[in-house]
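Illustration: DUT nucleotidohydrolase.
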Amino acid sequence: SGSAGVDVATAIDVMLTTGDIQLVSSTLKGPLGYGLSALLLGRPSTSRQGIFVLPGVIDADYTGVIKIMLYTLAPPVSIPKGSKIAQLVPFQSQVPYALAVARGEGGFGSTGQPQVLFALDIQRSKPEELVEIRHPSGGKLMLEMIIDTGADVTIIP
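Result:
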């Protein structure tokens, strides 16, 4: 019985003036101890207030200040210093062959290879493909269609 997580408080006053993601220092510092890693999650009460915490993993060997990534859809929002907006849910890592990488205070991917991710501005140039739709009676229709980019709906013009 008891809580699955430990509350995490902000170390500073925070003002969310846009919907952009902000990185906020917490009052906690790694390592967590006992060889534990943890999931950093938002508290339900925080989400109900329109503040969203992006989930993250705190590795057992992380030694820096634990940071909270958060945003709001309805700025401006003021978060006073000491507000418990997130929680750490500890776990024992079960990765059988994890590489020994000294993480130190490096966080947010800073200990791995740099990543370059492809981005396509679909406002100006849409990813399109010529598609042939065939009817069982022999009829066919050729359409220039937008490729599904991961949205929930594909639209046929």
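Reading the tokens back as a structure: The first strand starts at residue 6 and ends at 9.
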